[in-house]
């Protein structure tokens, strides 16, 4: 049930963990305003991938009848892989978007 999951306190803390991660991972100081594009990219990719996983599990998956827990392990690993790719794309966007804005202002 999606509503039961969204009421869990750890789920509500994930956006703050991502903000903390985006501010302290780069080896230089970065403002909160500079992390907004990458944060939005990461959150939107996580929402889309979670929604897609939910749709797959609800409608297209018959993993209990076929291969049992092995299918669920593979689906879980692929899901985590997609989440990490979204996080990396957000970090890269934070790296390149402010530089493009500065370069366009100097020209």
Keywords:
single chain; mainly alpha
Please describe what this structure looks like.
With 107 residues, the protein is mostly helical. It contains six helices and no strands. It has helices spanning 2-6, 9-12, 14-24, 32-60, 63-66, 69-106. α3 (14-24) packs across α4 and α4 (32-60) runs antiparallel to α6. It is elongated and about 50 Å long. The chain starts with a helix and ends with a helix. The mean pLDDT is 77.
Spans of at least 5 consecutive residues whose pLDDT stays below 50 are none
What shape does the CA trace take? elongated
Mean pLDDT value: 77
The SSE order reads HHHHHH
Given helix and strand content, the structural type is mainly alpha
Helix content: over 70%
Cα(first) to Cα(last) distance is: 52 Å
**What is the overall number of helices?**
6
Largest sheet: none
Question: Beta fraction of the residues?
Answer: under 5%
Q: Indicate the radius of gyration in whole angstroms.
A: 18 Å
Please provide the count of β strands: 0
